[in-house]
Amino acid sequence: MPPPSTSSTTTPPNTLSRYTPPPTTLLIYPATLLLGSLFSVLSPTAQQSPTPELAQARPINYFARKDNIFNLYFVKIGWVWMTLAFTSLLITYPTSLERGRRQIQAFSRYVLATVVWYATTQWFFGPAIIDRSFVFTGGKCETILRDLGQSQDEKGVLGAAAAGDEPLSVYLTAVACKTAGGAWRGGHDVSGHVFMLVLVTAVLGYEALGVLAQAPSESREEVNGKKSEDTESGGQVRTWALWFVGVVAGLGWWMLLMTAIWFHTWLEKANGLIISLAAVYTIYFLPRRIIPLRNFVGVPGA
């Protein structure tokens, strides 16, 4: 009687090491933040801009401006770029008997990462986690524009808005506060940029490594009794997809370094880093030890 076949979803953890790099690869992120933070403290250039207002009026460095083109059209819509890059990898998975399963598991990893990003920075049964923590630590919306208060007072919405101040309960998110012309001040502002950039670059990096691990072996697999080899066009598409992912991840790392230099306190950056690393570890490393989780999200390349 032949031995029962072993499903790839129950692959022993020691055989997964060739697919997923060790968790120590995540040290690149605290190292990047440390490098940027030290530069911000030690560099005479960085020390020439003592206040954000001065930095905006006379920027010492282009990346010290919040309205620089990379911040506006890359970081601010970072999850759009992440989704495009992830999709480009997903549709170029090498052809094999395992392709469908791997694509479904990869999509599951994307969904988990998206849920974490959305809950942390966009919405979590109301204000996002970052906004909730800011308000919880004493933050509030200040210096609302006088004309906003007057216009709302004329409509009878606010009875005490003649001075141009809105009740705190009206503005519980940074976006709403800034849209109303106010300033989000006084609390602990976890760095959403650090959180998002670390999550994006780590997810794309591990997914790209998984695709690279699949391609050489799967091009030699037999599918329906025939050799399955990547066509020249398919290989070119995958190459372009990997280049696109590399550009997005590389620019994400660069903007992480710029954030470390020009924005946020050490603690705010550290907290953004901790949240993102916890998510990455849960999605990409815990499945190597927890079989039910591995059956659901898989491991890139395995």
TrEMBL record:
Organism: Aspergillus cavernicola
Keywords: Endoplasmic reticulum, Hydrolase, Lipid biosynthesis, Lipid metabolism, Membrane, Phospholipid biosynthesis, Phospholipid metabolism, Transmembrane, Transmembrane helix
Record-annotated active site: 193, 264
Compartment(s) where it occurs, according to its Swiss-Prot or TrEMBL record: Endoplasmic reticulum membrane
Span list, region Disordered: 1-21
Protein name, UniProt field: Acyl-coenzyme A diphosphatase SCS3
Catalytic activity: an acyl-CoA + H2O = an acyl-4'-phosphopantetheine + adenosine 3',5'-bisphosphate + 2 H(+); (5Z,8Z,11Z,14Z)-eicosatetraenoyl-CoA + H2O = S-(5Z,8Z,11Z,14Z-eicosatetraenoyl)-4'-phosphopantetheine + adenosine 3',5'-bisphosphate + 2 H(+); (9Z)-octadecenoyl-CoA + H2O = S-(9Z-octadecenoyl)-4'-phosphopantetheine + adenosine 3',5'-bisphosphate + 2 H(+); hexadecanoyl-CoA + H2O = S-hexadecanoyl-4'-phosphopantetheine + adenosine 3',5'-bisphosphate + 2 H(+)
Biased composition (Low complexity): 1-15
E.C. number: 3.6.1.-
Organism superkingdom: Eukaryota
Function per UniProt: Fatty acyl-coenzyme A (CoA) diphosphatase that hydrolyzes fatty acyl-CoA to yield acyl-4'-phosphopantetheine and adenosine 3',5'-bisphosphate. Preferentially hydrolyzes unsaturated long-chain acyl-CoA substrates in the endoplasmic reticulum (ER) lumen. This catalytic activity is required for maintaining ER structure and for lipid droplets (LDs) biogenesis, which are lipid storage organelles involved in maintaining lipid and energy homeostasis. May directly bind to diacylglycerol (DAGs) and triacylglycerol, which is also important for LD biogenesis.
